[in-house]
Amino acid sequence: MVLRQGLGLAVAGAAVGLVGAVVVSHLMTGLLYGVRPTDPLTFAGVIILLVGVALLACYIPARRAIRVDLLIALRHE
After folding, report:
1. Choosing a second label site near 64 at 20 to 30 A (CA), which of 6, 33, 48, 71?
2. CA–CA separation, 49 vs 59, rounded Å?
């Protein structure tokens, strides 16, 4: 459940960021030399990297929470 929610937020953020990056790269076309404003390989690489990092950031706490004994956690609350 934690991974699904985290991945959903990461994908939504990547979609919003992709739209923003395309808009900004078209505005900066005059400053880019030798690179197309919408280089699909660059955009795909960055999205994969950021979603992977977000997935790892969700996985580590979820794995740690799975190891806690449920009765001990309930007594602590």
Report:
1. 48
2. 15
DSSP sequence for 37-55: TT-HHHHHHHHHHHHHHHH
Integer Cα distance of 33 and 66 in angstroms: 50
2 pLDDT tier (thresholds 50, 70, 90): confident
pTM above 0.85, yes or no: no
Q: SS3 helix, strand, coil % of the chain, rounded to 5?
A: 85, 0, 15
For residue 38, the model assigns a pLDDT of 83
DSSP 61: H
Query: Can you read off the two tokens belonging to residue 43?
Result: 């955009």
Please state, in angstroms and rounded to a whole number, the distance separating the CA atoms of residues 10 and 18: 12
